[in-house]
Amino acid sequence: MKKIVKITGWTLLIILFSGFGFGIYTYQTDDMLRAMIQQDESKLSYGPLKENVSLEHFDFEEYELQVNDSIKIYTYLFKPSIKRKGYVFYIHGSGGNATYWSQLYKPLIDDGYAVYAADWRGYGKANGSPNYRGVLEDTEAAFKDFINKTKNDSLKTIVYGMSLGGQLAIKITMDNQNEVDALVLDSAFESAQQIAIDYAPFEFLKNRARKHPGNFNQLYVGSRDIKEIKNIPKLIIHSINDVQVSISHGKNLFKNAQEPKEFWETKTPHIMTLRDIPGQAIKKINNLTL
Q1: Alpha-carbon span 93 to 187, nearest angstrom
Q2: Which of 6, 53, 86, 102 has its CA 20 to 30 A from that of 93?
Q3: Confidence band for 1, pLDDT divided at 50, 70 and 90
């Protein structure tokens, strides 16, 4: 009997230490889990691509923009080959860079829109590392530059934000309502807090995110800020097949938005509206500024 108890005790001890060791190994090797526990937003939210994609098939201008004493970003103005009908200030998501997503701009350019896209710090040729406050500073600097380059033109301006860029698109539109004629959101975040809740692998991490919104920067919260945007047409696009940002984000943004607004439920992969159903997308975007 004593031998059985001894064997059982050792077995439980081995299982305990094995579990503890596996936990330590997982923590050390899983960047996402470690970032969640440490609340390190630089690893949680951003996947910058440094290598630029060739733009040889586009007519564009590249600009070097000094954001502050230490940060320099690059922006791109893509020009249509037909009569220009408007401008799109395009804010990309957490992955890639401004050149990487150029194929998503193509349907807009082909329809007559000039598209201005900017990289954040750490993306493309820009120096530095992305963080919540930094990407806002970069986006604000890019939007100011965009307005300066288009202010003598009477054409309509559309702010288009995808995924993480959707929150920034809401913030930029809220702060510049006299400069923006329409807002388009594709697979946008409702908040960084909700994304943390969605992605947390353990309930204790989900509960910590729910109970402590102050742990997240509150400079821009999509579901809060969109309430302040008045008289600007809004097209909120979200796919029922989006496995990266739940459609509940889009629905909550739509619920909080003031009229005029439209919710467009699609069946595309995440942020692929302009790639997969460009004709329908362009038609809806054109209707925003009629």
Answers
A1: 10
A2: 86
A3: low
Max Cα separation, the chain? 91
* CA separation for the pair 248, 117 (Å, rounded): 27
Cis peptide before 278 (omega within 30 of 0): no
Q: For residue 107, what are the contacts with CB-CB under 8 A and spacing of at least 6? A: 274, 278, 281, 282
Torsion, CA 190, CA 194, CA 199, CA 205, rounded to 10: 170
Return the CATH number of the domain spanning residue range 48-288.
Answer: 3.40.50.1820
Mind listing the pLDDT tens digit for each residue in 136-173?
999 999 999 999 999 888 999 999 999 999 999 999 99
Distance CA 274, CA 106 (A): 8
What are phi and psi for residue 40, nearest 5 degrees?
Answer: -95, 95
